[in-house]
């Protein structure tokens, strides 16, 4: 007669203990009521799991089974909060900076780890598991903001700006005159497009794509629009001495090509010239608000 083997459960299965049981076991050890082995047995927790998580300071009551946390939930929460703080200040850390951050925190808190001591940072595997454990943190593409603009983005500065704007619009009755409210800004445009995917002979090591310039030329465009949705013709700044008439082909009537010898960036002289020769002749009669 064949014998059916039944596996003996001498120890609790992985993930079988509830968060409450683990929490009670931690409290029992910290209060000195039980030893580690005694608490693990009493609350049905695998000894190795209980010892490892206590050693790593990973005593989060809501913790779940899964990849081992190298730093512990408390330490990782410090990293999460620091990342959020840096992001609000406009200095969101890179992946490498977060790895270094984790290494330094482990050293400072005396947390045992397997990080790369020579490079002084956590590994890529740790970062991947960290992002899985902390879904509130994700990898995003940042947008460059100049230091000067960042300094102007304080709560006090922005609040003062809108207070002044509201006062001016009320004093001059601009709320009922959307055609007299204009917003202007400059933007940079890359003339050369990036090389895309093409069809070529299999095995080719290099497939160049001919373009007007290898690095590409950047121009500036001053754009302006009223609150009614009326756009002024674009004002384009090119670097160089002499422009070409055919550059205006296909552009809106009234568009302007302005050459600048030093650079294609908008400076105070170019902006005042735009204001005097391009904006004022096209604005409606009466007072106008230019933002």
Automatic annotation (TrEMBL):
GO terms for cellular component: nucleus. It is found in: Nucleus. One of its GO terms (molecular function) is DNA binding. Pfam families: DDE_1, HTH_psq. Its main location: nucleus. It comes from the Eukaryota. PROSITE patterns: HTH_CENPB. This is HTH CENPB-type domain-containing protein. Residues 63-140 form the HTH CENPB-type domain. It comes from Acanthoscelides obtectus (Bean weevil). InterPro entries: CenT-Element_Derived, DDE_SF_endonuclease_dom, Homeodomain-like_sf, HTH_CenpB_DNA-bd_dom, HTH_Psq. Keywords: DNA-binding, Nucleus.
């Amino acid at each position: 007669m064949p014998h059916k083997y039944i596996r003996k459960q001498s120890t609790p299965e992985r993930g079988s203990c509830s968060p409450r049981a683990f929490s009670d076991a931690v409290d029992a050890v910290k209060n000195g009521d039980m030893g580690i082995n005694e608490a693990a047995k009493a609350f049905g927790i695998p000894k190795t799991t209980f010892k490892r998580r206590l050693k790593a300071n990973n005593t989060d009551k809501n913790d779940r089974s899964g990849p081992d946390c190298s730093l512990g939930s408390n330490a990782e929460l410090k990293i999460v909060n620091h990342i959020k703080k840096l992001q609000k200040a406009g200095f969101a850390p890179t992946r490498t900076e977060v790895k270094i951050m984790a290494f330094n925190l482990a050293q400072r808190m005396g947390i045992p780890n397997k990080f790369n001591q020579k490079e002084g940072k956590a590994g890529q595997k740790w970062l991947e598991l960290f992002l899985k454990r902390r879904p509130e943190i994700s990898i995003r593409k940042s947008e460059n903001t100049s230091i000067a603009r960042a300094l102007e983005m304080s709560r006090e500065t922005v609040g003062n700006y809108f207070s002044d704007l509201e006062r001016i619009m009320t004093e001059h009755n601009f709320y009922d005159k959307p055609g007299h409210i204009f917003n202007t800004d400059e933007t940079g445009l890359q003339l050369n497009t990036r090389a895309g995917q093409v069809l070529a002979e299999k095995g080719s090591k290099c497939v160049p794509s001919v373009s007007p310039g290898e690095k590409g030329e950047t121009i500036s465009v001053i754009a302006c629009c009223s609150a009614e949705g009326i756009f002024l013709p674009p004002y384009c700044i090119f670097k160089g001495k002499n422009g070409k008439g055919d550059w205006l082909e296909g552009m809106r009537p009234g568009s302007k090509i302005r050459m600048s010898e030093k650079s294609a960036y908008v400076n105070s002289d170019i902006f005042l010239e735009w204001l005097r020769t391009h904006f004022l002749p096209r604005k409606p009669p009466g007072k106008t608000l230019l933002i």
